[in-house]
Amino acid sequence: MTEISAGNSVASIASKFINNTNKNVFLTGKAGTGKTTFLKHIIKHTYKNAVIVAPTGIAAINAGGVTIHSLFQLPFGAFIPVRDANIEFNENIKINTPSTIFKGFQLNASKRKLLQELELLIIDEVSMLRSDLLDAIDTVLKSVRRKNNLPFGGIQVLFIGDLLQLPPVVKDDEWRYLKGYYKSAFFFDAQVLQQNKPIYIELDKIYRQADNTFISILNNLRSNQVTKQDIDILNSHYKPDFKPDVKENYIHLTTHNNKADSLNRESLQKLESKSFFFKAEITGDFNEYSYPVEENMELKKGAQIMFIKNDPTGAQRFFNGKIGIISDISDKNIEVSFSDGSKSVNIEKYEWQNIKYAINETTNEIEEKINGTYTHYPIKLAWAITVHKSQGLTFSKAIIDIGQAFAPGQVYVALSRLTSLEGLVLSSPINTNSLNIDTSITEYSNLKESDETLTNLFETESFLFFQNYVVQCFNFSTLNHALTTHIESYQKDEQKSAKQKHFYWAFELKKEVDVAKSVSDKFLNQLKQIFQSKQPDYKEQLKARVEAAKNHFSPILKQFSKTIIKQIENIKSEKKVKTYLEELSELDALFFKQLQLIHKAEAMVKTATENSEFSKDKINTTEENKERVQELSTVNIKVKRERKSRGSTRDGEPSLAKKIDTKKVSFDLYKSGKTVEEIAAERKMVTMTIEGHLAHYAGLGMVDVKQFVDAEKMKNIITVSKTLDTTLFGPIKQSLGDEYSYSEIRFAMAYYLNSKK
Asked: What are phi and psi of 720, to 5 degrees?
């Protein structure tokens, strides 16, 4: 499945719920039903500002997104959704609340703007998402977006995943605190969803399996309705002494990492051919815990490997999970042959990207920025793999060892990797105790809406969304409120504020905006009347009125922008206007955003009259954005500030006195054998300042960083910095807890930042 077509009614209606309503959606489906394809379709076609997040680094890389903790700057640990919860202190468990979560919370202006402009949050691999973490996300979004009365601050959320895949991980000590607030650790039991349950949509067309008997067994496993006949059929594939021919390309699926690693290592060592070593090419920032394949790969001719990506050329020479044998290998080439008769493939390296989301200050759109890359061959040794790591993969033949399956649903995950029963071999019989699915999942699964309910709900919700969206696009209240607030900020004497003398300029602009708002208010009433009438031709009426309104308001809004840009040009060379210029830039962005909304409204109404789905390609903003970029390229907002030259006299003449390098003084005293405390006392400085001096040299490798922070703590500090995507000490300290000092964080970060250079 490469596109969401009308033929796939379930995927199609899920897409419509995303683009034509503001309802939260849980999109699930059995293994192989196309959830990943759906995710790619939404990102490609939605007109909404969207980002993708996932619970882990590897899941985020595979989904083309970022981790939840890095986007929302969340500390690690459990979250209790009560502001003043009485928590019994336990130094081994970190507990966060809405009060403590903001204690070290530091979002830069760009990240804050991104979350404010966000319209669609996509959470992939949602089976791993904990209920308390989802409530923490809700807490942050409500605060940053200043919409405490709306779930997720008014953002639409798309949850994607199969609840029978990897479950959320909660330690027993954590659950002792959480169980008083949560029915289960699964995302659907988050408090934010109890009065706002997402629409449950399940993709039902299976692309992986075609064997009806096998499909029936898998369905029964999912629903806790396994029959004795099902067990008998599965156990008929029990072959404890099965030894496959190397050319048959069987892979072992086991429940434990050490067993899979051992099988791969031993099988590779048995090959008598020469070893070749291949090292990943890493650029920029790429967290080592997110490496999709091992950094140093040892391969031999005859090694059994599997691909972990689909063929990027589209030629379908291989797919994610296809197994082959290395038939030829050198330092510069790897050839893989297949037992199914398909043509051999010379593997090319694949580039994984570690992205960051950033707001485009010019167009108000969320964009992806490549923060780092990891380039390597998209293959792994494939004599064995754990059930957990097999998620998303497809095998035609597998030897499955699930006698020690320890998690509910693990048997289902293992079996659902296979395309048919024909390729199944069990090395241990099915343990019926491991077949049970968590009752929380089965109860939640019963909430799935019928196709008829979905259709009726969509009719109601899409009309409400259509009406509200179009009306809001022509509502100038936010614009007017921002300008009113700006006017009220002119409070100082002209002698004390460079901004104050421009009050009348702002006052005249406000008068013009008032005129435009009065016209828009009248137009809003017209729109509401058309919607309420619901005449047979109401969409045609809307189309005509909206097109006329766009033609009226567009030049007015553009002129407002030009007025602000001209003001910026006129004053940017003045002194002490940096903050004022930033305020003007923010105002200008609001006028352009209003213009964008009007264009979106026109496109939405047009698609409604055509009975087609509203998507990104229906909005023609190319020319508007190009014009915007050209206009702003002429405005270089750099404030000219007079600074006294360091080392100069009051008259401006250069001083002959040489500036002392204060860091080097501390460094020299330290090298002479003095402690931080002794240096601080001698120099009459606080110890934090001296530590800052020495951290500089620790970063350069001239001071042993291990004298100030042990290796394990340094590793943890750097890991948290990467995960949260921040170098600020506050959020790192908040996440790590009191056993880590600011001194240790300072030295670890100095070492890390210099190593990146």
From this structure: -65, -40
